[in-house]
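Example 3.
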Amino acid sequence: MNKKWTTRAWIFAFLAPTILVFLLFNLVPIITVFVTGFTDWNGFSAPVWAGLDNYINLVSYDDTFLISLRNLGLWSLIAGTVHVGFGVLVAFILYKRPFGWRLVRGVFMIPNVISVAAWAIMYKFIFNDDIGVINNFMRDIGFSNWHVKWFYESPAAFIAVTLTWLFYSVIVTLIVLNELMAIPKEVHEAALLDGANEWQVTRFINLPLVRNAIGTGVILSITARIAMFEEVALTSRGGPGNDTYNIPLMLYNGIVNSEYGYANAAGTVMILLGVIVMLGVNRLFRMNEKIY
Amino acid sequence: MKRSFRTLMLLSLALMLVLTACSSGGNGKNEGGNKPDKENTGASDGKGASKDKVTIKIPHYKSGSNVGAKFFLPQVERFNKKYEGQYELIIEEIPQDDYNAKIKLLAQQKKLPALIEGGEKTFLEDVVIKDELFYDLKPWLDSKPEVKKLMIEDNVAYNTKGDKIFSMPLITMRPIGLYYNKEVFEKAGVTKPISQMTFAEFNEALEQIKSSGVAPLTLMTSENAWTSMLLATAFMANEPGGADVLKSTEYTYDYTAPAWINTFTQLQKWFQNYTTDNAIGAAYADAANNFLNERTAIIANGPWMVGDFSDTTKSAEGLEKKIGASIYPGGIAIATLNEYSWWIPKGLSEGETQAALAFLEFMAQPEEQEAYMVAEGGTAPNLQTSAEFESKLNPILAELNSSTKNDLKNTVQAMSSIFPNQIADPEFGKFLPTLINGDMTPEQFAQELTRKAKQFQK
């Protein structure tokens, strides 16, 4: 047994549990979702082959799918720019280790340890017309007739739903901060010896070197928008009308109506969108290329 | 080397397949469609039921702070006391909104509890009844003539599926009316009883109440828009052809008829002119809070709300003395006899089935039915109530009974009973803000609801 073979065997041995778990808990359900998406299935009786009916129903029944796609597009754009940008900004600030940086890092983490459902309910109060801080603040500063029904008016509902997640980007911060801390000291020393100032080090060294981490953040952030359920279901419920509808709500709608084939067609679309996002961002950020 | 690597890969794959196969073991077929699960139901072995105590554990929403818990939990206690050492019923608390979903989930896992109250109509009819996953109550009811004679015939007929009886037929029906603040009415100069008004007169009364400085109606859009939906139901029952639609035993998928459009138009006006600022987005708790704290004058709701009027943790002090009860303008009461009640899944052990039947029989006893009506209102047409019954009755419920007795012209089902699930909750409430804000006309609202309803129509 040569060294190469031994190394491969060890790699495989360490990967085996993960592969096993992936097969059991991810791949099998994914295949089930994909296959049953082509069936008429109420979750109890045997699925009956229905061809593309569920997909046709999903995409063309009314304008819900188009609205959901439009919302996803906008949310993805906001997530990939503002949400990730904010996380990266915080990471770069924390990297400088200003006074209290550890506290800020800890506090920034708090929203992530509170369930999304709890946040959604809190935001219903925050945006409440009678007792919510937003509307009361606006009335206190002089807009006495300010009565925005945040989750029940257009376009306020879209803005309100967006604000429930927009600034909670600690995962992006942690990934980028970790990558920043891994930059070899020599790189910075060489740049400083060459006369680079702080801005130039940040712009031309640090930022390009954390490209992969930012790309990972973008992938995580956009795929979270594809799967975003509680933030919508527990606040605007996709309304008013269909204004804040998204694909997970369409999936949920299928389940509630015992249309598991339809729900799984929606699930398949979500998986495909996730894969497209992964491949696209991978390419955009050239994540397969070596940085060092 | 490559060959050895491939061998290792194949061995690993084989191991995974073996583990996968093992993980799916134990899903044996179950004849009755329900697998008695001791962990879930807490049931003891039914074979020795005559000697061993049988414990059944069921999830139910009439627990915790739910309005129904006030009567139901003590009733369970009374049952447990009566059958001490033989049967025990344990209630697992679950929010009302999650109950139907939980039952569906347990059905999929073949772990249905021994007793279930109702459930989502489509699921019950398309799965439970169609696949006969229920315990047929007919032979048992035939052996209990003293119970059977109390039942409301229309509900027995509704529950009869072929030669079987699916769920325990109702003995008591509870007409849903409305409550109003007498003090506010007096101040506004509204004297005519609501049940004797037409809706035109009712709208005039709303205007008078509004002029007196109180928001007349308690409306809401969240959840299933309950209080708004009830008022809309009563209005529609007065429209030509409306009552017939509301009496249907099937779901209605088209809301574009004039009766619907007129109802939506009226609903829009009520929201725009006669309710509180927080009605858009208000859930039941917000709506009830508005009425209980005298910010509104009228709330449409069932008799189960009566207890809240004297509960000072919820209501203004002394509110119960100011509250009047009535059926709706035009002499309309809302009640449904087309509903499913308690049922038992097929495939339980003998001990569990007997325990479940014992609870159904316990609830059907005249004294329990009477206690139920005293606590939550209602009428039992085939039950001879005791001499003290009337005196035990809450005065507000007595007023509702009197209004029903004197002015009832028609009884219809709530609109939500003929809406398919996705319309009842969430689509009706979700589209209401667009109607109220004027983003949709009543016609567009009707068309949108119709489109949503038809999406999953079988």
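The mean pLDDT of chain A is 93. Residues 61 and 144 of chain A are 43 Å apart (CA to CA).
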